[in-house]
Design goal:
single chain; mainly alpha
Length: 92
């Protein structure tokens, strides 16, 4: 599916995701890979609201943490999500 069609779902809270929508991980990944900090921030917000993460999402978050193009706020939130994911999955 076209990533531009996926990211629009990020404008609603994660809790409002419906069963007829694409999977949450696809929506979040599209947001994290978007060229706009707006979509990246919304994708990070979905993860903070409980959207599931996987290895691919964690790799994208690590890229965001290292990319000075993004605001400090987005990078710090991304870093916290990565640390939380590694702790929950028993890796460091």
């Amino acid at each position: 599916m076209d990533p531009r069609a996926l990211v629009v779902y990020l404008e609603s809270p994660y809790s409002e995701q419906r069963g007829n929508q694409p999977p949450a991980h696809e929506i979040v990944l599209a947001g994290l890979q978007a060229p706009s900090e707006y979509w990246v921030g919304l994708a990070v917000s979905w993860l903070e609201q409980g959207a599931p993460a996987n290895n691919e999402i964690i790799q994208e978050l690590n890229s965001i943490v290292e990319n000075k193009h993004f605001s400090q706020r987005v990078r710090h939130h991304s870093s916290a999500l990565v640390k939380k994911w590694y702790q929950a999955n028993g890796t460091a």
